[in-house]
Amino acid sequence: MTMNLFNQFLSPTFLGLPLIAIALMAPCLLYPSPAPWWQSNRWTTLQNWFIGSFIKQILSPINTKGHSWALLLATLMVFLITLNTLGLLPYTFTPTTQLSLNMAFAVPLWLATVIMGFRNSPTHALGHLLPEGTPTPLVPILIIIESISLLIRPLALGVRLTANLTAGHLLIQLVSSAAFSLLLSQTTAASLAVGLLLLLTILEVAVAMIQAYVFVLLLSLYLQENV
């Protein structure tokens, strides 16, 4: 039973080739590119409005040096939302349930913010490791604690996204299995399970969007500290 539950998180293969690359290309194929003419359809207008609102909200507390990250953060946001929501469709694979993929997103971007901070203002970047007014005996301990807190940030980013999506998929599979097994014996209980499954699916769509937003929001906060 345990193996059956977690088999859905295995990367699918075809003729020995992993299909995760095709899954990662799906967002690029779904969204239309801007048209060269003035008139555009409603989908493109809605897409541009969403990206513009998101960039304005994320970059409002960041000074102008960090605005060069606007395209990267917006692309990452749309990319993660698309991967998370497409993974809720039947017979699909969710790449963001793989910790390795999420760490591949988190570590380079976090490291880029840290390197930017040390390059632009090393004194200010090092100042985050020691709060002002710290008693002298506590200085070594606080430096160690703050260093560990700094190094654990990308791990927290990757694990948070992986754990939330994995838990949601497991809940949906458990409830759907219960509804299917009760369908013939107990119709009332099966109907309740189906209703719960619909509510869980709606909740997971919200979680998929929120987790993508939180991932990018935390990256923007790390960027704000270093610019």
Automatic annotation (TrEMBL):
Compartments where found: Mitochondrion inner membrane
Reaction(s) the record says it catalyses: H(+)(in) = H(+)(out)
Entry's Gene Ontology molecular function annotations: proton-transporting ATP synthase activity, rotational mechanism
Main location: mitochondrion
Taxonomy, superkingdom: Eukaryota
Keywords of the record: ATP synthesis, CF(0), Hydrogen ion transport, Ion transport, Membrane, Mitochondrion, Mitochondrion inner membrane, Transmembrane, Transmembrane helix, Transport
A GO CC term attached to the entry: proton-transporting ATP synthase complex
Topological category with respect to the lipid bilayer: Multi-pass membrane protein
Pfam families: ATP-synt_A (PF00119)
Transmembrane segments: 69-89, 101-118, 138-156, 163-184, 190-223
InterPro entries with a match to the protein in the record: ATP_synth_F0_asu (IPR000568), ATP_synth_F0_asu_AS (IPR023011), ATP_synth_F0_asu_bact/mt (IPR045083), F0_ATP_A_sf (IPR035908)
Subunit (UniProt): Component of the ATP synthase complex composed at least of ATP5F1A/subunit alpha, ATP5F1B/subunit beta, ATP5MC1/subunit c (homooctomer), MT-ATP6/subunit a, MT-ATP8/subunit 8, ATP5ME/subunit e, ATP5MF/subunit f, ATP5MG/subunit g, ATP5MK/subunit k, ATP5MJ/subunit j, ATP5F1C/subunit gamma, ATP5F1D/subunit delta, ATP5F1E/subunit epsilon, ATP5PF/subunit F6, ATP5PB/subunit b, ATP5PD/subunit d, ATP5PO/subunit OSCP.
Family of this protein: Belongs to the ATPase A chain family.
Protein name listed in UniProt: ATP synthase subunit a
Organism: Kryptolebias marmoratus (Mangrove killifish)
